[in-house]
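Hey forum,

I'm writing up a methods section and want to include a predicted complex as supplementary material. The small molecule is magnesium ion. I've pasted the protein sequence and the SMILES. Can someone with a working setup run it? I'll credit the forum in the acknowledgements.
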Amino acid sequence: LIETEDLTKVYPMGKEGFAALNGISLSIERGEFLAVMGPSGSGKSTLMNIIGCLDSPTSGKYLLEGEDVGAKSDLELAGIRNQKIGFAFQSFNLLPRATLIENVTLPLSYSRVPRRQRAQKAEEILQRVGLETKFNQTPTELSGGEQQRVALARALVNNPVIICADEPTGNLDTATSREIMEMLSELNKDGTTIILVTHDSENASYAKRIITLRDGRIVR
Amino acid sequence: LIETEDLTKVYPMGKEGFAALNGISLSIERGEFLAVMGPSGSGKSTLMNIIGCLDSPTSGKYLLEGEDVGAKSDLELAGIRNQKIGFAFQSFNLLPRATLIENVTLPLSYSRVPRRQRAQKAEEILQRVGLETKFNQTPTELSGGEQQRVALARALVNNPVIICADEPTGNLDTATSREIMEMLSELNKDGTTIILVTHDSENASYAKRIITLRDGRIVR
Ligand SMILES: Nc1ncnc2c1ncn2[C@@H]1O[C@H](COP(=O)(O)OP(=O)(O)OP(=O)(O)O)[C@@H](O)[C@H]1O
Ligand SMILES: Nc1ncnc2c1ncn2[C@@H]1O[C@H](COP(=O)(O)OP(=O)(O)OP(=O)(O)O)[C@@H](O)[C@H]1O
Ligand SMILES: [Mg+2]
Ligand SMILES: [Mg+2]
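Reply by user p_vandermeer:
Happy to help. Structure tokens for the complex are below, copy them as they are.
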């Protein structure tokens, strides 16, 4: 499903730039549940952003369902992203002045789901993450862990083929974290491919395979 | 040092508002290390914001060093806050276009530390949280866990009497989290009062006392 060859990512910094990824080659099969671990600053989010088609590598190949993503235009990338990938950002990236329902239905406007069904789908997924009493709130009126769950709900609402979740439980208590991980586990059993960045070993135990990054390389 | 009596906080929402705190009475002695735990949405950050003089309660009393904080003007509150309290936000609240040194020296401009010493103090604390290679970066060029450590460094730079740290390790791997907790532990041994919101039981084990919130009340 996903195949990368020798990916690098160099951010502009000073004269030579900063290499956040130094040659990542990774194969992910359809239906896998992969955890990506590693120290703070090791390149996990950078790798996720490239796999999630949100950013381009500096060099190296990325094949998604056999097609070379690097050769795509921005418009094509956005289309692939909206149809196939659900992305939950580490920094949430919610629209601060839109309600939770508006935030979660945003991806549905790309996938031509009929309008009257969109709010219902959004309500269902918000209820699954425990936010049924906050539908008409805006993200600025929520706690940190509540915003984090909205970001995850938005990633799941479109039933994507691939879910990229970047540290989805950092602001959640243990019981709520477990509910989120159980939900991801169920989606994986139904065939969804899940790539989870986490530094929590209990979360990682739900995955079938764990890779560990350090200084932009896969060390395990 | 800190004494609250029957604090409530009602956010504007619909007709009756939403009661995030429902009568919190709490005493914190000088030099304590207190952990505040509880489910996502239980009122931890709301309580921290009031104790840290960033927000006012809807009702109830808050005495800081015997003085009634509720009776203070905004200007007086800002003065108390800058001199006595170091606050590390759950959402970091960094200046996105300022460098790390500029972000961390900001509190020092209030406390009349001579300019040439400010950068040196900022560099020292940034080095202690492991960011010595990123002094001239801006927060937008950092990973989630790196931003989180800058927020904590800014809270510590002014050697405050009280440190309020709201989930300071949610984006950090286990080894980095432990370094941060060891550092807080050392500061507490030197007499700093620490109030730590966390949902990580390993972090809470560094504290001397744990209180648990649920639906805006102390349940334990
Ligand atoms: N401005 C607001 N308007 C309405 N409700 C609010 C507002 N801010 C917070 N709340 C609500 O108050 C409750 C407590 O929020 P708070 O941020 O204190 O929770 P928390 O314990 O810190 O949660 P977390 O662990 O997820 O960070 C939440 O249910 C939240 O939705
Ligand atoms: N725009 C940028 N410019 C320069 N350096 C950057 C930029 N974005 C990220 N970096 C650096 O690249 C490295 C990897 O960042 P990344 O966000 O991928 O780390 P991470 O593994 O997700 O860390 P965390 O667990 O703290 O979220 C970090 O050291 C960071 O400082
Ligand atoms: Mg990250
Ligand atoms: Mg909070």
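Some notes you might quote in the supplement: The first strand of chain A starts at residue 2 and ends at 11. The beta strands of chain A are 2-11, 18-28, 33-37, 59-64, 67-68, 85-88, 162-166, 193-197, 209-214, 217-218.
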